[in-house]
């Protein structure tokens, strides 16, 4: 028969230690701490734990559990600063089912230059995860005198469907170091004001604290592996938005990045027959002084008013420049070009 584990108390491992829950149904509303170590929760019928140097380093579900299982629900606080938190569930069934639900706090901040990792994982065929509450893999600010407070960590949310709840807090910020990354890996993904997987406003907020990589893979039956931008996204931080699709990237609303080194990476056709397109008059704006743009693995030099304007356009005629690839990052006022050039 199916079993369950419920924690409503306080569980603490020694620094570098680990806490592991394995059961078809797991509920945590208490506090679990394993700094510099790992907290792992797994819902599956066959689970492999890998150890090295007297510590737990990985957890893999080899066989999904029965459809009646309820998966994993965290409403409490899980802390593994300088370590990792992995919450993974795979549940059988023909219908899309939420197998990981987070409404609590999961924290794996950087300490002593050891980055934290948080992973919420579900099956790629018929499982969903709900990303709510707080996922914090940030690095602390560094008080003077010091050279670095550390880099931000890594967050992964992967399943057939990844829904981000209103008010969810996700951060890999590093005020004194390099910003970390949040990977969202579903089978299809839609950015929309309503009815999608995340709103444009939410994504814009998260780009203020993290590099965001949306990777739409091909897994579930009947899905296309597309990324759809149906709501405007805009941010001013020096972070990068990466959109990767098994098939198509459909940009149907504006994408605007104003940070000096903000970037956009578009990678369609990770599978077969895919492309990217701008529809409905959608515009991509990269207006910073040194923005980056990569499309299908090819880097483009971005020209805009902030990094040379008309002069930058005219410099494209040099012999060495003619073989380059260029993109217009913002409108450039060339109304006085004839007069200023003395033609």
Terminal residue distance: 86 Å
Helix % is: under 10%
> Which structural class do the helices and strands define?
mainly beta
Report the total helices: 3
Taking Cα atoms only, what radius of gyration do you get, to the nearest Å? 23 Å
Task: Provide the low-confidence segments as ranges.
Answer: 339-343
What is the overall shape? globular
The number of strands is 33
Describe the 3D structure.
This protein has 343 residues and is mostly beta strands. The protein has helices spanning 200-206, 309-314, 337-341, and strands spanning 4-7, 10-12, 18-22, 25-28, 31-33, 38-43, 46-52, 55-63, 71-74, 77-79, 84-89, 97-102, 105-107, 117-122, 127-131, 134-136, 154-158, 161-164, 169-171, 181-185, 189-191, 211-216, 227-229, 233-235, 240-245, 249-251, 255-257, 263-267, 276-278, 284-286, 292-295, 298-303, 326-328. The strands form six sheets. The chain has a twelve-stranded mixed sheet with strand order 3-6-11-14-17-20-22-25-28-31-32-33. A six-stranded parallel sheet has the order 1-4-9-12-15-18, with no helix packed on it. The radius of gyration is 23 Å and the shape is globular. The N and C termini lie far apart (86 Å).
